[in-house]
Amino acid sequence: MDNFFSGDAITTITDGVIEEISSDNNTTFLTVTYSECTSCPGADQSVRLAVGNNTLILNENGFPMQARTLEEGMTINAAFSSAMTRSIPPQSPAYVIRVVNRPMAENSQTTIGRIMDIDRQNRSFTTIGNRNLSSIVRFNVPEDARIFDRSGRPMDFSRLIPTMMVKVRHANFMTASIPPQTTAFDIWVL
After folding, report:
1. Is the overall model pTM greater than 0.90, yes or no?
2. What is the mean pLDDT of residues 164-186?
């Protein structure tokens, strides 16, 4: 592992939380808080990680992802150079970032169901949960919605097909129509 990092001393953090994200040219900066001692009260530390083109970023399933898909509130594990600036918080180039957990938005909830039909022209699909007619929901899928296959890899809306079991993170509001409709944020094929 030392050869990969050109002999630099490496620091790692486990279960750090991304507090702030900013960008400058081709570099994304993540301010991450973490604890070196989980049982010590008030011992949180902060570091500003410089994420460049050579930083390996992995999602929860170990597949590569782009820096632009990182979000505030995500829990990450990271490996970065021990050579840091003396700023507050200290800054260091990141070598590897692995997303451990994504935050649930306050204005969202999750539904699991089987796709009954898909309207490709209007980018929507209908699901049913547990073969219960009262659980039918129509999900409208905006262009920026994230869709993942069974392996956690990003996939296109066009690859969704009826009978697929999906987990959908969606807005916590639904229309009063039959079936109720809402907006999908993330879709995972199960």
Report:
1. no
2. 90
